[in-house]
Every structure is written in C-alpha cells, then in structure tokens.
Design brief:
Elements: H1 35-48, E1 65-68, H2 73-84, E2 90-94, H3 99-103, E3 113-116, H4 124-138, E4 142-147, H5 154-165, E5 166-174, H6 180-183, E6 192-196, H7 201-204, H8 212-229, E7 237-240, H9 247-255, E8 263-266
Parallel strand pairs: 1-2, 1-4, 2-3, 4-5, 5-6, 7-8
Helix pairs in contact: 1-2, 1-8, 4-5
C-alpha cells in the first residue's frame, strides 16, 4: 500500500535563521524558541512602533517605551531587540516568573524599570504612577507601547498609560486586536496609532506594500548573525517528555496558564 504524507508547511529560504553549534552539524534546541516570537517582536518594534533598527541605533534623546508582558517570549525578545537598538528607558511590565531574566537584561542606569503587574492588581493608578516616574525622569513623554499579551487586563492598563502619559500621538503594537470600544474612547482615539502584529506578514506578502517579506529576510539574517556573535539569545524553554505524545499535555498547560516565562518544546526524536 502506498501513501503520501501531507505537506504541512513551506517556509521560504529567506525566512530561515542560520544558527548551529560549534561543531557546525547540530542545531541548539534554543533555536526553536526564536523564529515566531522574535519575528513578532521585530514587527512590533520596527514596523509597528517604527523604532530605530539595531544597525542604526537610537543616537539622540531618551525614548520611553512600554512593553507589557515583557517576560513572555514575544515580550522578552522585544526587550532584547530594544536594547540592541539602544532604546531607553524600557518600562517592562511582567509577572514575577520572568523577573530574573529581565533583571539581567534591563539597564537601570539608563532609566529602565521592571514592574510586577501582580503588585498592582486592582490599582491601575498606582501602576501608572510608577510608569510616570520613568517618563518624567527621561524628560520625554511615552513614545510607544508594545502589548505582547493583548488580552485580560492589558488593554485597560496600556491604554490608560497612553491616555495619561504620551504625547499627542503614540504608536501601539498589539499581538491581538484591541476591542474597538476601548480604542475609540474620546481620550484615546486621536492619540493611538495601532498596529496588529501578524508574523505571517514576513512570509505570505500580506504586508508586501510595506516590504514585509524584505523586512523578514533582513531580520532573519541578522538574528543568525547576532546569535553567532553572542549578542542575541533564545528564550528559556522546557522540553516536554514523550515527543509528539506530549503535545496534548503541553497545549493544556498553555491553555490553563500553567506556563510562565518559558516556551515548551517537543523533541520529535523522543516520539
């Protein structure tokens, strides 16, 4: 009996990252944490917020940027890329599980701050007061916000920060669409320039008028170079047992919110 396996996915060569171990024969498991999350972070920062790219780092005044969900994979890559672009102060908001990672990345001497959203449950005003301290210290209004979570309480907090602390126009990048009713509130509608991050833009040409595929080609090449140079790293991860047999429990853990500050990997050879 003959058969064919279904074709699951085709990824253009321009969307590949060159990253191997020192023996030039094997690929670190860390590599699996990079493509989707790092691409989303790059799109949000550079296409959405239109920040300077790392090969043309920010040379002038402080540029306060809020990153909500900073210990998530997308959020942590956004922090790493912002640092490569010399963007400061970074106002990072995350849960406690990712604080050890973020403390090793942020530079308090440049005004970066790390806020635990759990400490401000039900106290948005208190959280805004801490964000305000960072923007006032930089003597610049909030330039932009990247919401790597884009659900539950994050739209409320991010939009409140924009309404209170930004200039006349602020760029907002989100990983999920914000509710229209929240975006259209009178104190925000004229200020917010939203951008929805869709990682597939670098593959399928949906954003081709703005050069999405070209952008992806450049970023993937740079990811590989920075990894080899040690200037860029993957995200913390856990390899689930059982290969493909572990997919169901991994998905359930993600659904139930049991995974914090790391990615889950499946090693096919363990199947």
């Amino acid at each position: 009996m003959e058969g064919k396996a279904p074709q699951a996915c085709i990824i253009p060569l321009t969307s590949s990252v060159n990253y191997v171990n020192a023996d030039s024969k094997s690929v670190p498991k860390e590599a699996a944490t990079i493509p989707l999350a790092a691409t989303s972070a790059a799109l949000g920062l550079y296409r959405g917020l239109q920040l300077p790219q790392p090969w043309q780092p920010n040379p002038t005044a402080p540029c306060p940027v809020l990153i909500y969900g900073a210990s998530s994979a997308v959020g942590a890559f956004a922090v790493k890329l912002a640092i490569l672009s010399d963007i400061h102060p970074i106002i990072a908001i995350s849960g406690p599980s990712g604080h050890s990672l973020l403390k090793g990345l942020l530079d308090t001497s440049k005004g970066d701050i790390l806020l635990n959203y759990i400490d401000y449950a039900g106290n948005v005003a208190g959280l805004l007061a801490e964000i305000k301290k960072a923007t006032e210290a930089s003597k610049q209004p909030l330039y932009g916000a990247f919401d790597a979570i884009s659900e539950q309480r994050s739209p409320e907090i991010v939009l409140a920060a924009i309404a209170a602390l930004s200039g006349p126009k602020v760029r907002l990048a989100t990983t999920l669409p914000y509710p229209e009713d929240k975006l259209k509130q009178s104190d925000r509608a004229a200020k917010v320039d939203p951008y929805l991050v869709v990682a597939a833009d670098v593959h399928n040409g949906r954003d081709s008028k703005a050069g999405g595929q070209d952008f992806g080609c450049v970023m993937f090449r740079m990811f590989g170079q920075w990894l080899q140079e040690g200037r860029f790293t993957g995200h913390p991860f856990e390899v689930r047992k059982g290969g493909l047999a572990g997919v169901q429990t991994a998905l359930e853990a993600l659904r139930d919110g049991k995974v914090r500050g790391k990615e889950l990997l499946i090693d096919l050879k363990d199947t």
